[in-house]
Every structure is written in C-alpha cells, then in structure tokens.
Specification:
By secondary structure, this protein is α/β, with parallel strands linked by helices. It contains 11 helices and 19 strands. Helix 1 runs parallel beside helix 2 (about 55-75) and helix 10 (about 345-355) packs across helix 11 (about 365-385). The model has no long low-confidence stretch (mean pLDDT about 90). Pfam families: Metallophos (PF00149), SbcD_C (PF12320).
C-alpha cells in the first residue's frame, strides 16, 4: 500500500508580512497531482491543518477545495487535528465527510477506532491520535500525571489492544501530532511544554508498522518506522536549510517500509545573511541571494542610517532585519534579547528570581513557577478552543 505522508499545512499563516495563501494553494495542487501521478492509496495529514483555532475564511475555502479534490480523486485521506487546530471545529461533519473517503480524527476518545483500508495483501488499520493536551485528556486516559509521555503512552496502549483483536497479519499505521525525542525543532512551532517536558520517546510507537508524525516543521527520520514529514512551506527563517517535502511510503505485505521524499514547491528561497551593512551591500558572493526572502543580521557597532531601505536596493525581498553589534562579552550594552536567546520561559523566570533576590529558586519554587507557566499555556489553549 502506497501512502503519502504530510502535515503542518498551517493554512492561513503568513511568512513575516507575506501572504502565503497562493503558495498554500500551489501546495494543495501539488499534493493532489502527486497522489494521482504516483498512484497513492491513502493520504495522511498529521495535524495542524490550520494555523489557528478560528482560521480566516480564505483558509477555510482552501481546505474545502482540498477536501473536494481529494474526494474527487477517490484517494482515501486520514487526517488528525494538531495543537494549532480547533479539534471541534475541524471535526464538524466528520461522519458525513467520511462517506466521501475523508476520515477526520479529532476526538481523543476515538483514538483506538481505526480507519480500515485494504489492498491485495489484507487490511491496514489507520489510527488517528489527534494532538493530546495532557491537562485536558488526563481523565479520559486515566493517567496519574498530566504529561505528554503519559497520555500518548496510554493512547498507544489502546491502539495496541485494538490491533491485537484484528485478523492476523493486519498492518498498522498511527498518525500523531507530538514532539518526539530526537526531533530537530525550528522557530515556527508553538511550544507544547508541560511540566518542563514536551518530548516523548520514539519507543512509545512500538508495535505499529509506521508512525506518521506532525508538529515539527523539518522533514526527518527518527527511526525507520517513525518519521516527520515537516511543513510543506517555510514559516520561519530557521527553516532556511530545510528541504520541504512529503514522504511517499510503500508499506509492504509483511509491514516492510520503503520511503522516498517528494519535494514541495516553495515560492522563494530563504537566506540568512550576516555582516556589516557595507559588507552585505558589497559582497559579490551574496549575489545568489538577491531574489531570496532575506533575513539580514547587521553587526555594525553603530546602527547605520536607513538600513532596511538600503538593503532592499540589493535584496528587494528582505523581510527581517536583526541588529547584533559586535561587542566584547563584558560590554554592558549587550542586548537583553541576546542574553535571553535560547532560554526557556522557565529559565527566564528563574533568572529573574535570582536577579531580584540574589539567590535562585529552590525546588519547591521551581515547581510553583513551572505550574504557573503551564496554567497560562493551558488557559490559552482553552481560550482558543472556546473561540
């Protein structure tokens, strides 16, 4: 059985100030064409269909168009909700849509109710694990502690229990939206940390033939049977070195896996350039970036006059301008942003306590800070769901 694994469409999202709707429409057309030309048996969409819980109308219309085109093609599609989606909104009409071969899986309680598709070698059971917010699903999965590893582990226990009731030789595929240990992050994913821990081990997916992951925006292989497709388009300059693609997975009669990458159309290359303004304007080696979307980091000790306008004369698609003046480490003018770079919210809060009090927080105080940060993030999630 041939599968096309994709995720993280983020319909409705822009790239800095650039509207990406046309690029997203081009990707949908590419997806449909690939499914047709490569004789795909099922399309897998591992969450974050939309960029936010209440997407703009144009994004909803594009999603509707994608569903109709996939249904017209006659290729079954299995799709889960991600942490950016409103599971309830995405799942509206799932029963009716399922009759057209588009199977939406947005209810955590139904994670062990597979979509069954068949080929010449027997059945394949597709299990959809939508994004599982630990604080919201811990009672459903009866876990003692609200954490990503606990709830996903409990969901996979249900999957394996159901699979054990199926006919001998039934192959299995799980779609999940999660941060799995070993995955490389980028700047455009929303933090899903709970209790200071977001990652789950890849071993949690043992017992199934393929785990089609979503959430991280870089295409990557964590194990032969555990892969992220990544986002089909870039949504931050940290993705400048990404190769945007989908996985074309051939699932053999005994569960063997062969996977190849299918490149996605990207509207414009990304480039991150760094140096003084004069260096960036004069360096002939940067000519290859003149038509790219550019993030320029200026290292001038003194901020130059009108830098964006001057950069745009050579790099007309400059979208981001960062100032990082070269100074000695002990220079008191080293920016606050630089001091915070790479530090988590928890670390920043603990640093603040240390700065104010002269001593860092003890273990109890660290736990209180972590609980407060988790509560704010869960409140934000609930607010989006309520919208």
């Amino acid at each position: 059985m041939r599968l096309l694994h994709t995720s993280d469409w983020h319909l409705g999202r822009s790239f800095h100030r650039v509207n990406m709707l046309d690029a997203q429409a081009a990707f949908i057309a590419h997806l449909v064409a690939t499914a047709r030309e490569r004789e795909v048996d099922a399309v897998l969409v591992a969450g974050d269909v939309y960029d936010r819980a209440v997407p703009p109308l144009a994004a909803v219309e594009l999603f509707d168009d994608a569903l109709h085109r996939l249904a017209d093609l006659g290729v079954p599609t299995v799709m889960i909700s991600g942490n950016h989606d409103s599971a309830r909104r995405l799942g509206v009409g799932a029963g009716l849509i399922g009759r057209a071969g588009i199977h939406l899986r947005t209810d955590p309680a139904a994670c062990a109710e597979p979509v069954i598709l068949a080929d010449d070698h027997g059945d394949v059971a597709f299990y959809g694990l939508p994004y599982l917010e630990p604080a919201l699903v811990k009672e459903e999965f009866a876990v003692a502690k609200a954490g990503h590893e606990a709830v996903i582990g409990a969901a996979m226990d249900r999957v394996r229990a159901d699979l054990a009731t199926r006919a001998r030789g039934t192959r299995s595929v799980v779609l999940a939206h999660a941060f799995v240990s070993g995955g490389q992050i980028s700047d455009s994913e929303r933090d899903i940390t709970v209790g200071g821990v977001a990652a789950v081990p890849a071993a949690v997916f043992e017992g199934v033939d393929y785990a089609a992951l979503g959430h991280l925006h870089g295409s990557q292989t964590l194990a032969a049977r555990v892969r992220y497709s990544g986002s089909p388009l870039p949504y931050s300059f940290s993705e400048a070195d990404h190769r945007k693609s989908m996985w074309l997975v051939d699932l053999g009669p005994e569960g063997q896996i062969e996977a190849d990458r299918v490149d996605c159309p990207v509207p414009r290359a990304l480039a991150r350039i760094r140096g003084t303004l004069d260096e960036l304007l004069d360096d002939p080696g940067l000519a290859r970036h003149e038509e790219a979307w550019v993030e320029a980091t200026l290292t001038d000790a003194v901020r130059p006059d009108d830098p964006m306008a001057r950069l745009c004369e050579r790099f007309p698609h400059t979208l981001s301008l960062v100032f990082d003046p070269v100074r000695a480490p002990e220079d008191p003018d080293v920016s606050y942003a630089q001091r915070l770079q790479g530090r988590s919210d928890q670390q920043v809060a603990e640093d603040f306590v240390t700065h104010v009090r002269g001593a860092g927080p003890d273990a109890h105080e660290q736990a209180v800070l972590r609980s407060a940060l988790d509560a704010v993030r869960v409140d934000d999630t609930l607010h989006e769901v309520a919208r």
